[in-house]
Amino acid sequence: MFAKTLMAAVAALMMSQAAMAQDKLIDSVSVDYGSGPKQRMVRLSAANDWEKQWFQSNGTHLSGYWEGSVGYWRQNQYRNVPGLEKGLWDVGFTPVFRFQNDNKKGIYYEAGIGVHLLSSLYKNDSRELSTAFQFGDHIGIGYVMQNNWEVALKLQHFSNASIKRPNGGANFLELKAAYHF
């Protein structure tokens, strides 16, 4: 059921974003699959490139993009009870800095810090986030192929920056696949 829902959502996102790509409101769409201690996550994103080139040197530069996302997290040890599952939704907005080649192909490195709103409080595997508002930061390495497909590996951390305790944090190792229009 989860896989069918994911496939339908990816197809709908890609078709709708492809239609908007002509206006350059959306430059790319992506899907991330993440895993962490006793948790899984899938995220659909749309991005808009900043079209900037800072610190240009030797065919490389610093640039970035805006990313809007919707994700679903499955907690597999909710309230620290083995086998007790609970899902929650995550809506996020993240500015991301990317160090890349001038032609935007090949290897890149990126980092971003954004804001996220969770549909319910996170309480999984003895970790708890006491607010629905979270900061999500990530670092990643990826590769953009000549056919505009991209693959990446990211480490992501969610925390409320100790606005309210407890603030145990949630961490994911993510695999990203994206297409650039």
Sheet with most strands: strand arrangement: 1-2-4-5-6-9-10-11
What is the CATH architecture descriptor? Beta Barrel
The rounded Rg comes to: 17 Å
- Unreliable residue runs: none
Distance between the termini: 30 Å
- H and E order: HEEEEEEEEEEE
Helix content: 10-25%
Strand content: over 45%
Please indicate the count of domains.
1
Largest sheet: 8 strands, antiparallel, barrel
The chain-level structural class is mainly beta
CATH topology: Porin
* Annotation field: number of helices: 1
**What is the residue-averaged pLDDT?**
90
Large-scale geometry: elongated
User: Which CATH first-tier class would you pick?
Assistant: Mainly Beta
- Number of β-strand runs: 11
Task: Characterise this structure.
The structure is a single chain. With 181 residues, the chain is mainly beta. The protein has a single domain (2-180), classed as Porin (Beta Barrel). Helices cover 10% and strands 60% of the residues. The chain is built from 1 helix and 11 strands. The protein has an 8-stranded antiparallel barrel. Strands 7-8 form a two-stranded antiparallel ribbon. The model has no long low-confidence stretch (mean pLDDT 90). GO terms for molecular function: acyloxyacyl hydrolase activity.
